[in-house]
Amino acid sequence: DDEDDGQLQFVNFVDDSGAIGSAGRMLRQITLDNSKLMAVSIIIIAVFSALFIFSFDWIESRVLVTLVGVGLVILSFFAAVGFGILVGIKVNVSIAWTLPFIIMGLGVDDVYIVLTSLRKAGGYEEKHWLEAMKDVVVPVTMTSLVNVCMMAVLNVSDIPAVYLTAQVAAYSIIALYLSVILAFPAYCLLDFRRQQAGRLDVLFCFKSKNAGGPRPEDDFRSVILYDKIYRPLMLGARNTRIISHILVWAGSIALIAVGAYGISEREVGLGLEDFFPSDNQAGRWATFRTEEMASWSVGMNWGALNYEHPYTQMKMIKQFEDVVATPHMSEVDTKRLWMADFLLWTTRMCTDNFDREDFDSMECGRDVFHAETNSTCSGIWTENIFNLRQKSFTNLFDTTQACVAYEEGICRPTEQMHPLDMAEAGIQPGDSRSWCPVVNAWPDAKWQYCLREWRNITGFGGGRFLFEEGTGTRKEDCPSVMNKDEEFQWPIPYTAGPTMFSFDLNSHEITLDMMEETRAICDDEEELHCWMTGIPFNYWTQYENIDTVLLELCGYSVAVGFGIAFIFLVGTFMKKRYTDPSYAERHATSSVVAGSLIGALLIAVTIVASVVSVVGLSILADVNLTGFSNMAFVLSVGFSTEYSVHVVDRWLLADLSFQSSLDRTRHAMELLMLPTFMSFISSTIGVVTIAFTEFDFTQVFFFRPLIITVVVTYWFGCWWLPALLSILDFDAVKLGDNAPEGAEEQSMDKVPAYAKGAAVVAPEEAPPESVVLPPPQEKQETSKPPSAMEDSDSMIEVDC
């Protein structure tokens, strides 16, 4: 009855060497699992967009053109992915689980901005269309360029999940920009002409007969979101505004503080147990392996060294023994290192003569004669200047002494030395020093000969030496087996130590500690360089500096955002100076540069606050730092840029009839509240669909950081930033055009939301009944389209 008992379900974890294995199959399954959720996300976003643009005035409604815009975004995204595939980028799990749900949201946001600007155009002639597009081209171009450059910066990462995803994202942003700025406006112009002709939305073959009906001035969605909720809370009466701003500032400071704390508690790494589903056979194996069998094989490697010198020989052994002595490395006898085994073979402590195959021939180095030098392969003993390990000895006559499991080192104290070796080395009995075997002053020919004989006689299979081709011979009694008598490549270009095992690696942090401990001895050693290899060093290396990489990526992205925003803002205002003499008279070059610098700093500060909060909150939500999560974190720069650039740009460009910073903030948010909110909702819809995947890996490393990204960036871009802008009341940031001729000062404190365009005699808090409305006007010819507000068949005619 126990589900864990019974038939054997999983017998092995198959790696991906040579052919796809367990990890590869699971990676493919996770990557392809996004198709259904992506389709659901696209459908919901399209429906949401249509509903939010829908109007009961069938002429004013823009459902069809909105769906066209969403369709262009979808087609552009898939075109960019297809282009990436054509240039050799394979769709990986990061591309599959971030870009469809995020990049399309950024594209739809630009569609919303364009549609909102067109709605505020004031008419349906081509000049109104041009004015509306003129207002959105610069901020949309700025955000797109920042995002493309941000993705280009991500290519400094050496993690494929990051730089390949960034490349496809860059292609996507370029494609989205071209479609939104070049293709989509053409459809919008056609929709203008539909409205001008009095044709109905979607059912454009039908034409309204009600040519003189009233046209609603305000979108009811904007009235609800901005006039009824956002403006009274954030930009309304003084007391309410102060309380709201205090709460917004307190919330923002809390987010940043919690984010900073979360960053200090960061953990790194993604293991097999995180990657596989918990109910998957490989997932169970990976969890059990991490908890109970947390061990990986590792190795040491050396390049072209002066192996002939005794100092190098002892230093090499010292490195090996120091690595073995680290806390997470299992015990290995020193003689398993090829250099140590060879040096012992050249001494009287060689034991190969006791179990030789041919009793007529001796097999130790001192018995192997080198004719060219007329000498044997004999080594010498020298003082243990490196404090190498000594051999462990068991006293066979002491029954109280425990059996020694390992021999440990190859060096010996004086009392354990052979008398003849002592005589040759001039060692006096009772000397407290220890001694180690070395080889000194051998010519190259003797080195090559003795190494070949040692390997052939002892059958030593380690070292991973490189040999000259075609120099080995076959055994006479068994031709299918090769002798180990190949000629060594000389000088020796590369050697390796024996296989070792690291253990108790129960977490990513412990694994990284083991790597740091061993690399300090090996990789970081300049005098005698070696390098560590094995699964931990091949896989976990990406996490050694993952926090530094994240800091660099975010820093570069913020710098790019600041630089491009500054350049665009300066360029925009300097163009006004050169094309408009009255603007140049009002705004000096120094004030333009100062205002642009302030605007760019405001954008950069918003990005930094968002990134710190997103990273910290994600870490507290148990999201480790990995290439996948870093990609999600950096995307917060894109979202923050998308919000802050539009808000700051419109705030700076408010004409001078808006005298106070509060008025200019109202001017900015009146237009942007609806499209930014729609962008927030559409992005949230896209990300929330990820939560319905069956893979915990996707939920942890994609859904959690992305949903935090969407919420936090919207908070800082559309709530905290306007609260900050509303108190920055100084002339350096008033870079808008001169007030229109004859225009009164547009202090929004004098005009309540429910009486826009009316003659107002009441203060802001006055009830509607205190507003004096203008007298009714006689119907006159107008360029505005007819309305289809009346529900009557007589109001519609078919005209295809």
Automatic annotation (TrEMBL):
Location of the region described as Disordered in the Swiss-Prot/TrEMBL record: 759-800
Transmembrane portions of the chain: 37-56, 63-89, 95-115, 136-156, 168-190, 242-263, 549-571, 592-621, 627-648, 669-693, 705-728
Residue stretches of biased makeup (Low complexity): 759-772
Domain SSD: 34-190
Protein's name according to its UniProt entry: SSD domain-containing protein
InterPro entries in the cross-refs: HMGCR/SNAP/NPC1-like_SSD, Patched_domain-protein, SSD
Family, similarity comment: Belongs to the patched family.
Comp. bias (Acidic residues): 790-800
Domain of life of the native organism: Eukaryota
Organism annotation: Grammatophora oceanica
Record keywords: Membrane, Transmembrane, Transmembrane helix
GO cellular component, one term: membrane
